[in-house]
Amino acid sequence: MATTRCNRPKVYISGPITIGNRNSHFYQANEAQRLLMLSGFAPLNPMQSITLPFAWEKDFTHNVWIETDLPWVEVADAVLRLPGESKGADEEVAHAENVGVPVFHTVGELEDHFIKKTTNNRRLKKMVQDIFANEKCDGAIKEDTGGTSCCKDAAELSPTPSPITTLMDTHDRLTIKAKAIMEAKNSDYTCGSGDPFANFRASEAVGVSPVQGILMRMMDKLQRARSFDSMGELQVKSEPVEDICMDIINYAVLLRGLLAEKETVDKD
What we know:
By secondary structure, the protein is of the alpha/beta class.
């Protein structure tokens, strides 16, 4: 099935950014963008703006961002509202409804609307016909081939990512999730003191330095990874391999923080 550059339905992704865990919101929006692209849509993900070097400058107020985003809402074929509290997202949804842009809450709802339902909008109807050949069959997309029909898996319609792309995607996903976990556990680490290493300094009571304590915890995680490598499974099913990797990432960051603190003390 040939998909041209200009015929995908445009979807504006609307969701939380500043309220709550920003890393979780960023991951949620990126995952929505990935699914939309693979489903045949052309998503606009404004959450990417938080990575801009000027994003948090005082001149870029809430009103500036909203006034920048609403024109894109107006020209979208649909809005995908992601879960989470957000004043800005609520304003975007209200504006979409005012100008007649449909609002959805899942990628499945979008597919139902654009693929399975007949629409009186000729432009959107032709868009759907061009992209999806009007049908899906058993998890595959039906493709017109000169009067005959055949089914192709959706995966065949998307280029296979290179190994390095897959690796970098894994890096992004794990580090974003690991940071979100660290932020969520921060109160446990600080023990209410405001010191992010307080929980690890407690090991000094038994003659173990905080650095050695973190290294011991890292070794425990590395041993579990080694066990998986040797046996092909983990005895404790509640902690998958991915969680082990994210714990190692966070322990490495904590270790760097403690060593940086020690470097500062040594210089003084």
